[in-house]
Amino acid sequence: MEANEILAKAESLRNNLSTGFRDEIVKSLYTEAEHIAKRAVKTTSDKKYDFDQKIDRLVTSPYTGLPIMLLLLGIIIWITVSGANVLSSAIAVVLFGIGDYGRALFNQIEMPWWITGFIWDGVYLGLAWVISVMLPPMMIFFPAFTFLEDLGYLPRVAFNLDWMFKKTGAHGKQSLTMAMGFGCNAAGVIATRVIDSPRERLIAILTNNFVPCNGRFPTLIMLATVFVAASFPPALTSFIAAGTVVGVVLIGVAFTFLASWILSRTVLKGEASAFTLELPPYRRPNVSRILYTSIIDRTIFVLWRAMQTAAPAGAIIWILANIPIGDSNLARAVADWLNPFGLLLGLDGVILLAYIIAIPANEIVVPTMMMVYIGAGMMINGPSSNSAIFDLLVNGNGWTILTAVNLMLFALLHNPCATTIMTIYKETKSVKWATLSVVMTLGTAFLVTFLTATIARLLGWA
Amino acid sequence: MTSLTWVFITALLLLVSTFLPRVGLLAIYKTYRAALEREQVEDALKHLLDREQHGRQASPESLAGTLNLQRSHAIRLIEDMEKQGLLESRGANLHLTTQGERWAIHIVRAHRLWERYLTDEARMPLEKIHGESERREHSFTEAQLDELDAALGHPTRDPHGDPIPTREGTLLKAEGMPLTAWQAEGPVQIVHLEDEPPLAFEQILAAGLRLGQTIRILDRNPQRYLLTDGETEYRLAPAVAANVSVAALPESETAKASAIPLAELTYDQRAEIVVLDEAVQGFTRRRFLDLGLTPGTMIYPELQNFFGDPRAYRVRGTLIALRKDQAAQIWVKPV
């Protein structure tokens, strides 16, 4: 037969095919697979299956499902908070000690003041801050979280929360991508590939930033410990701090639902689509692999990225702080200029300046803030204890509880970091969605902090 | 600087932004106009093809009516299209040339492929896909359509049951006949829902009828048609009923008769999958099949969410969660 004849014949046959022919193909594939499996696989006892079923009943039941979820989140955050506090101050003591030594050494060999300042008060101080603030929470959070991931618990969370996502027009697997967002929002955005409907995937991408990532956790932990937990007896501090962070995370989840609901009724109109989710059997986590992936792949990777932005940021802050303008310096001048807007949001100019400098990576917000507050030459060492930080912020720079609360809200809601924005652009291949992700989150952050600040002031709380 | 200099600079900027090639305002306007004209030509071609397929004549009046144009404008459009060799007027009637027909079929193909895509992959509600496809059908080349066709798995029918033309341009006639013309007794399957005019289509959807549904005609009189699917009764005005085409029941539908939707299976029941609903096509169907939800498979519910939706089912030794609306599309027989 001629090629054209064959094509014509195929074409005529195609239209006469019953619609179920694909079903038949797949069915025959499965029959064949079953046939092979029957010969090759032996099934023994059902003990493991029964045990899995018992756990599943427990973690998805109406009475215990949600409490278990909150409890696990609480435990992970509590371990992170209480462990991080101890480690952070230990690391800070060591690193700032090295800083003192280096500075003394440079003075001894009579280096020009600006080389000493640039290296030790700029680049080094930025690095020391990022490591002492970032490293401990990551070292604890990542392994704890990877443990849950390995166990096979996360799909159960998706199963439990799906009804909420269905109501907001989103996909149940969005809870998996949100869980990834705790580690890093850029990773969370990439993880949305598991959602196959384009509309629901976009919702998951755009709202992922409402989950505080590891770069923002230290800010939340520091504020929760220094401001909220400080007024409680010492025995309770770690619980109060962890509870506060859990509360902030839940506010973020609420905003995720709200934003998903609004998006699926405006720019991403549509109905909830097909949802299929496999609930794999539980597996015993492989401890050595957990340690390897969470320390090497995640912690070191994220820390290295933070250090790459922290070193130049430290340098920039030092330079800004050492260009004199009248009695003041450039950093102060910019912060003063931003101050009225910052106060309107219940924050201040330094915080906004820190957020602008921290666009490449959220991790350096706290270090930047501290370095500007401390200023050039005023105080050589970073405050390494919580009470010192409290003193610096409240007595030295006029912070109130409103500033702390609003900074927590701002840290939760503000725009994604540059890496995440780039990832959103790469995943959606659209400037429009990347822009929307920034406008939406920044708009929410401004609006919410403005409202809390205004309401608190009207009620005379601040 | 004097104010004269400012005026000069402003004027220069205005000139540049207006006349700059490709990105200037004028150029943008020209592109926009060209796209608009092309859309008009393509809509006219579709109208002519539609008339020809229904064995009716197209005239300048019918064209002006469908495209919502003034008569004089329609005449100008027809002259333009004649010059391009897309149509011929014989007396008061308009006919497509071979070239015109080819283009028209291309547009119909684009329209129906887009409808398929919007339903199966983007999962847009059925009443919205027609309007959305009307917007999208114009800006696609043949090669892009082939890509879309392949990505969708070479579907043969659009979600309304209309045949999708092949790339060679063969277009099958819609099967089935209008409900108003169906005389035989016994159950029938809805094979086509006409989406023009939109008002009648909305009424059909509002009544709850959908493509692939099995119905029985209970009563017909000049005021209304009374239909049932065994549970619900549907009432349609005869004018609306004429937009519903039906055909004799295929085999898969007879299998459904003794089955229940998976969503209705209780916790102490086990069942065998009979058939996946006709309404599940494209992505969702592939996903179901990939998960092993093939006819003949044993399945039973194992876990329930706090609010009863979704449920997790044990199938082929794995646990798979499905929302209620998906589980309602899988027909099973309790054993």
Number of strands of chain A: 3
Strand order of the largest sheet of chain A: 2-3
Task: Return the structural class of chain B.
Answer: alpha+beta
- Strand arrangement across the biggest beta sheet of chain B: 3-8-4-5-6-7
Number of domains of chain B: 3
Note the beta-strand portion of chain B: 15-25%
Structure description:
- The complex is a heterodimer of chains A (462) and B (335).
- Chain A is mainly alpha-helical.
- Chain A is built from 19 helices and 3 strands.
- The termini of chain A are far apart.
- Chain B is an alpha+beta fold and 335 residues long.
- Chain B has 3 domains: 7-96, Orthogonal Bundle (Arc Repressor Mutant, subunit A), CATH 1.10.10.10; 177-249, Ferrous iron transport protein A (FeoA) (SH3 type barrels, Roll), CATH 2.30.30; 255-334, SH3 type barrels (Roll), CATH 2.30.30.90.
- Chain B is 43% helix and 20% strand.
- Chain B has 12 helices and 14 strands.
- Chain B has a 6-stranded antiparallel beta sheet. Chain B has a 6-stranded antiparallel beta sheet with strand order 9-14-10-11-12-13.
- In chain B, helix 2 crosses helix 5 and helix 5 crosses helix 6.
- Chains A and B meet through helix 1, helix 2, helix 3, helix 6 and strand 1 of A and helix 11, strand 11 and strand 13 of B.
